[in-house]
Amino acid sequence: MTDELSRAYDAVVIGGGAAGLSGALTLARARRTVAVIDAGAPRNAPAAAVHALFALDGTGPAELLERGRAEVRRYGGHVVSGEVGAVTRSEPEPGAGAGSGPGFTVALADGRSVRARRLLVASGLTDELPDVPGLRERWGRDVLHCPYCHGWEVRDQAIGVLATGPMALHQAQLFRQLSKDVVLFSHTGPVPEGEEADQLAARGIRVVTGEVAALETVDDRLAGVRLRDGRVVGREALAVASRMVARAGFLAELGLKTQEHPAGVGEYVPSGPGGRTEVPGVWVAGNVTDPIAQVGAAAAAGTGAAVQINADLIDEETRRAVAAHPFSPRAEARVSAAVTGDSRHGL
Q1: Residue 81 to residue 3: CA distance in whole angstroms
Q2: Is 250 helix (H, G, I), strand (E, B) or coil?
Q3: Are strands 266-268 and 243-246 parallel, antiparallel or unpaired?
Q4: Coil, strand or helix: which one is 33?
Q5: How far is CA 124 from each of CA 118, 322, 343, rounded to the nearest angstrom?
Q6: What secondary structure, in 3-state letters, does 177-234 show?
Q7: What is the pLDDT of residues 259-316, one digit of tens each?
Q8: How many other C-beta atoms can be found within 10 angstroms of the C-beta atom of residue 283?
Q9: pLDDT tens digits, 43-66
């Protein structure tokens, strides 16, 4: 990503994943000046491939992003490497005129800065994983989280589900669709009781109690889950629900902060329809506001937010145009009638 940043853009997109690149592509095709600023740390980098994405199933994450960058550049957009340190509100450009909307200064960690009339924040999230030795090293390989993204690849294997939060039982039932051999490790959480225990038993999902101490590997493959008491339960794949935290600290100076997600899965930036936030001029898309969105849904959200941003810019430009040309033919006719009255017929 070698593009040079210009001084100002119609829109700056923070984050170069599926949501950000899709939004930037839509804006560039609408003949907007747009820059994508990407820190180069995609969430799905450890995964071998992107799945359940129409016409692109099985594409490697790096390849998919490179295609997206090339498409944005094809329409004149810039894609720039950099980490955003802070975003502040700025005054309209000199000569912008009446009716100008909000503006922003985006400061990068390396000292560069750029102005934006609108912002699309698509910075994604960070997966906070349980502190279990061996787990992080296998994340995105045989330790996974989403049955729709990676479930087919572990079908019919011995699958474990590590309980880390309120979604664990649901996650166990999802993976039971893919294999008859599913074990739920209660770990440090409560042991299922009552109706929950009945549901697991009815589906043949065994519950293993006790804290998990580490993962066991053989020949660089997951072989089992070792418990604190020394027991080892053989497993070929392990599903883990991470705590998902939006990457949005740079928005603090705008007063836009993350909140706890209603589903208890982590922190997100709340937004309204189309990704509009409570801060005028700022939209969000993808995992930063929808933690469970897959690649296709994130891309669609980026497009939707870009459409709203373009419409908002058009509204601003129309207001400015009207303010700059107050004497339209219709306005002149009204003024003429008011000033000259009946005598205008003799002109």
Answers
A1: 8
A2: helix
A3: parallel
A4: coil
A5: 18, 39, 67
A6: CCCCCEEEECCCCCCCCHHHHHHHHHCCCEEECCCEEEEEEECCEEEEEEECCCCEEE
A7: 999 988 999 999 999 999 999 999 999 999 999 999 999 999 999 999 999 999 999 9
A8: 28
A9: 888 888 999 999 999 999 999 999
